[in-house]
């Protein structure tokens, strides 16, 4: 009988992720959440929906004017959950890009709106303004040069375009053992681009930065941290990375699975298709497609204007609406519009 040697065929690398698709967090009061992220921070509510795994809870999506991939911060307002504790095994910081030179504007705006913020810090040659939302969620603004052909579209209802948030800059992971996650990020196509001593309230000694291939949400920072964590109000639920097409996602899922992780099957989330898995330290990662997008079921001009119930949930509209608290989406009055126009003229 002939013996045949088994040939080991190396698995092809997946297409690199362009970067962050969205970040989903836990809030407490839905109206407070809407008021802060729309009126104070000037993001557009591009989708008002429900948590598809818990339809008695809202799911709010805040983004740029068109809901561009890499711009949407989303929230589950779970009012009966406890206050969370940011620690290891979590996305500990979420950072947004703002145009260079706009941090003075944001500090003045935070003073006017009573926002809790810290002193600026320098990180990898960029200036960072840390602050917290009403639930204590740690957030940062990073001043960067926004190119003329940037894919994001500023929403100008409350904040003028020259100061508006322009999508994600980065997320910071606090990890007890960064080694396996470092390998995972590299498998996903991110490249290690620098290391420096951490500043601010991060307890790790050394921050390592990884860069993705895209233009928005392209950075993931990793800090070694041993600190207790608890999910609740003011914490990140998961971070989603872009896998633009179904093929991209399937290849990335295979690569992740080959590392011993346990990604789910693809799940239809109506505005994108998703695969979920926990990385080695417990952070919940998602892979999300670019299509069909937030404008697939509402006209672009009307994004966020109504409660959208995906799929079979529409058949339960009366029951679902009866169990959701009433909320009002902030809209600028004449004085606020005048202030935005005046800021734009200055």
From TrEMBL:
Q: What is this protein called?
A: Diguanylate cyclase
The UniProt annotation puts the region (Disordered) at 321-346
Q: Could you tell me where the Acidic residues compositional bias lies?
A: 332-346
> CDD domains, from UniProt?
PcpA_N_like
Pfam families reported for this sequence: Glyoxalase
The source organism is Halarchaeum rubridurum
Domain VOC: start-end pairs: 19-144, 167-290
Q: Which InterPro entries match?
A: Extradiol_RC_dioxygenase, Glyas_Bleomycin-R_OHBP_Dase, Glyas_Fos-R_dOase_dom, VOC_core
């Amino acid at each position: 009988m002939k013996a045949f040697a088994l040939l080991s065929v190396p698995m092809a690398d997946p297409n690199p992720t362009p970067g962050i698709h969205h970040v989903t967090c836990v809030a407490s009061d839905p109206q407070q959440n809407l008021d802060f992220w729309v009126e104070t921070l000037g993001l557009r509510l591009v989708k008002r929906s429900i948590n598809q795994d818990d339809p008695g809870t809202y799911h709010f999506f805040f983004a740029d004017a068109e809901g561009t991939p890499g711009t949407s911060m989303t929230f589950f307002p779970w009012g009966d959950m406890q206050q969370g504790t940011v620690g290891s095994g979590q996305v500990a910081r979420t950072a947004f890009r703002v145009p260079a030179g706009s941090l003075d504007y944001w500090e003045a705006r935070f003073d006017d709106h009573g926002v809790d913020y810290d002193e600026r810090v320098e990180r990898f040659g960029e200036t960072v303004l840390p602050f917290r939302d009403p639930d204590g969620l740690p957030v940062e603004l990073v001043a960067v040069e926004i190119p003329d052909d940037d894919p994001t579209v500023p929403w100008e209802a409350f904040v003028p375009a020259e100061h508006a948030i322009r999508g994600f800059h980065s997320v910071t992971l606090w990890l007890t053992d960064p080694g396996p996650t470092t390998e995972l990020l590299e498998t996903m196509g991110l490249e290690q681009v620098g290391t420096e001593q951490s500043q601010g309230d991060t307890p790790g000694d050394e921050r390592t930065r990884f860069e993705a291939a895209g233009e928005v949400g392209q950075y993931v920072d990793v800090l070694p941290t041993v600190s207790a964590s608890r999910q609740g109000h003011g914490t990140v639920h998961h971070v989603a990375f872009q896998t633009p097409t179904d093929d991209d996602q399937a290849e990335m899922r295979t690569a992740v699975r080959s590392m011993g992780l346990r990604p789910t099957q693809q799940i239809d989330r109506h505005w994108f298709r998703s695969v979920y898995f926990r990385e080695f330290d417990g952070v919940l990662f998602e892979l999300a497609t670019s299509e069909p997008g937030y404008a697939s079921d509402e006209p672009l001009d009307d994004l966020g204007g109504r409660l959208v119930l995906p799929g079979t949930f529409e058949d339960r509209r009366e029951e679902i609406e009866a169990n959701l608290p009433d909320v009002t989406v902030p809209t600028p009055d004449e004085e606020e519009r005048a202030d935005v126009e005046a800021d734009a003229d200055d």
